[in-house]
Amino acid sequence: MKRRTFLKVLGSAGALSLTGLSIGCDKKTAVVEEETPVPESFPDAKEFGGKKPEAVIDLATGEVKVEPTVLMRNSACLGCYSSCGNRVKIDKGTGQILRVYGNPYNPNNAEPHLSMKDPLTAGYLAFSTYKNNGNLHRGTLCARGNATLESHYDPMRITVPLKRTDKRGQGKWKPVSWQELIDETVEGGNLFSDIGEDYVVDGFRKVRDNQTLIDPERPDLGTVSNQLVMNGGRGDGRG
C-alpha cells in the first residue's frame, strides 16, 4: 500500500469513528419505550441491598437530621501509605462497617477541605447539594481506599498471631495467643521442638546485648545487638 493510500484509509477510519458517536441519536431512528407506570408505593430499600442514609439534609435551610442507627467516624485510610483520610459509616446496632468515603476534613481527600474547627454537621453537608457543598467539599477516596472495606472483612485476613507447624515453605500454621507470641519472641528457646526441629532460637532479651562486641578484633562492627535486622512488609502505625 502506498503512503498516500494509507493516509486516505486512515482519514476515512477516523471520520467513521467520529460520526459513529451520533448513531442511534437521530430522532427518526430513535426507539421510544412505552411509558412505565409509576407504582403507588415503593418497597423498603433494604430488601434490595439499599442502606439508610447517614443523614437527611433540608436543602432549603441546611438542617441536618442524623440517622440514629448510623454512626459516622472520620479516620485515616490504610489502603496505602499516602495517609489520606476516610469517613466510615457504621451500623450502631451491629458494629458492622457499611461503607467507606473520603474525609472532607483531610486535604488529601477534598480541596478545599473543611477546617478542623468546622462542626461535624459540616461533614454531612459536604456530601449534600445544599449551597453546592457537594461540589465544593465532597471528600473522595480512590478505588484502593474503597476496597479497604473488603479487606476488613476478607475471610483470609490474619487477625491473630500464627506459628509455623511444619517445615519452612509448607504454609502450615496454627494460631497462638498474643501472650505466647510475646513470651517466645522475648525469651526465645527451643520453639519448634514439637515439629522435630531441635535448635534454640535466641530471644530479643538475649539479642539486645549492648555490651558484648560482635568481634573484639573489629570494634567498628559494634555490639551484638547490631546483628538484629528488622525487616517488615509494612507498618500501619500512625504514632
List the helices and strands and how they pair.
Layout: H1 3-19, E1 55-57, E2 64-66, E3 70-76, E4 85-91, E5 97-101, H2 120-125, H3 133-136, H4 143-146, H5 148-152, E6 162-164, E7 173-175, H6 178-187, E8 188-189, E9 201-202, H7 204-207
Antiparallel strand pairs: 1-2, 3-4, 4-5, 6-7, 8-9
Describe this structure in words.
- The chain is of the alpha+beta class and 239 residues long.
- Among the domains are: 52-152, N-terminal domain of TfIIb (Single Sheet); 162-227, no CATH class.
- It is 21% helix and 15% strand.
- The protein has seven helices and nine strands.
- The chain has helices at residues 3-19, 120-125, 133-136, 143-146, 148-152, 178-187, 204-207, and strands spanning 55-57, 64-66, 70-76, 85-91, 97-101, 162-164, 173-175, 188-189, 201-202.
- Strands 3-4-5 form a three-stranded antiparallel β-sheet, with no helix packed on it.
- Strand 1 (55-57) and strand 2 form a beta hairpin.
- The N and C termini lie far apart (66 Å).
- Mean pLDDT is 83; it is low at 14-32.
Structure, briefly:
This protein is α+β, with helices and mostly antiparallel strands and 239 residues long. The protein contains 7 helices and 9 strands; from the N terminus they run H-E-E-E-E-E-H-H-H-H-E-E-H-E-E-H. Among the domains are: 52-152, ADC-like domains (N-terminal domain of TfIIb, Single Sheet); 162-227, no CATH class.
